[in-house]
Amino acid sequence: MKKIIIRTDASVDIGSGHVMRCLTIAHNLKLEGCNVLFWMEPHAGNLIDFVAQQGFVTILKAEQADLYIIDHYGVDMEWEQNIRSYTKKLMVIDDLARAHDCDLLLDQNVVPNFEGRYEGLVPDHCVKLLGPKYLIMREEFIEVRKQNRRHNRNVQRLFVFMGGTDPTKETMKILTALEQLKFTHVDVVVGNGNVQKETIEHICRERNYHYHCQISYMAQLMQQADFSIGAGGGSMWERCYVGLPSSSTIVADNQLMTTNYADQLGAIINLGWHEDVTVNSYITLLKQLSTIDAEKLARTGLELTATPQPNAWLSQIMELLA
């Protein structure tokens, strides 16, 4: 049995996206007969207990393994070189076009000239998996994409998810904006690491909104929604993948390029950098929903994320392990 260690983290500041996409990879590798462990630090807002609930052991220091998978902005090429003595092969998941010492690199993002982003930044032998062909998608999203539906131009069902921890407190801005508007059904999703989750839950109960915390049925909620207000990053690609029209607020530096480009391509509505997005920004968006060509947004998102084979990265990882 091949042993794989995934080095990643979640926290209030880091967010939960790295761990969530690594869990998708881990579940797929487990089905292939691999023994997958997570190396995670106990930061505030970590997901160590959640990873355990998903059936994976967490370690706190390096161990020998057949493959290390690294998904962490705080880990650099020097760290990768130092970990080589513990592993036969090294895979890196990145969004930032940094230099790496790895055998396999995955960057699922769509940015201008993404095919050449890592030229000269990785070893010559490194296999590069670049662009939306290699999106990391949970099975629930793959199934929902098959059931794609038309969305009401008159938005009745609104879906709100600003990332697992929402460090810039966008959810509260949106809830404040929603005081002035009425929708038939509002789903508000937060992660365990959201420090305002109790307040958000209280507001949702008062207004008869539907509150969800650290859920495993995100794709189903997206499939039922007419429009979504969300953040950039991995959740933006999930919305595109299931054909959900949405806006994106940039809440981290690494989301800047991809969110701007997705907006240029017509796949999402970019509201801009979070410090410039106010309650009034969300009010304006919500009041203009009936004028937005939702079907065009949905169609562009679906076309942009079309893949010949869902999770095409899996065969490349198994080949690396052979």
List the defining traits of the structure above:
single chain, alpha/beta, Rossmann fold, seven-stranded parallel beta sheet, 12 helices, globular
Question: Overview of this structure, please?
Answer:
This protein has about 325 residues and is of the alpha/beta class. It has 2 domains: about 5-135 and about 305-320, Rossmann fold; about 140-305, Rossmann fold (3-Layer(aba) Sandwich). It has 12 helices and 13 strands. The protein has helices at about 15-30, 50-55, 75-85, 140-145, 170-180, 195-205, 220-225, 235-240, 255-265, 280-285, 295-305, 315-320; strands spanning about 5-10, 35-40, 55-60, 65-70, 85-95, 105, 125-130, 155-160, 185-190, 210-215, 225-230, 245-250, 270-275. The strands form 2 sheets. The protein has a 7-stranded parallel sheet with strand order 3-2-1-4-5-6-7. Helix 4 packs parallel to helix 7 and helix 5 packs across helix 10 (about 280-285). The chain is globular, with a radius of gyration of 19 Å. The chain starts with a strand and ends with a helix.
Helix content: 25-40%
Q: How much β-strand is present in the residues?
A: 15-25%
User: Pairing-aware structural class of the strands and helices?
Assistant: alpha/beta
Question: How many H/I helical runs?
Answer: 12
Number of domains: 2
Q: Can you identify the CATH superfamily of the largest domain?
A: Glycogen Phosphorylase B
CATH architectural label of the largest domain: 3-Layer(aba) Sandwich
Largest sheet: 7 strands, parallel
Mean pLDDT: 95
Number of strands: 13
* Topology order in helix (H) and strand (E) letters: EHEHEEHEEEHEHEHEHEHEHEHHH
Separation of termini?
11 Å
Order the strands across the largest sheet as they lie in space.
3-2-1-4-5-6-7
The shape, in one word, is: globular
Query: Would you give the CATH topology of the largest domain?
Result: Rossmann fold
Radius of gyration: 19 Å
Instruction: Return residue spans where pLDDT drops below 50 for at least 5 consecutive residues.
Output: none
CATH class of the largest domain: Alpha Beta
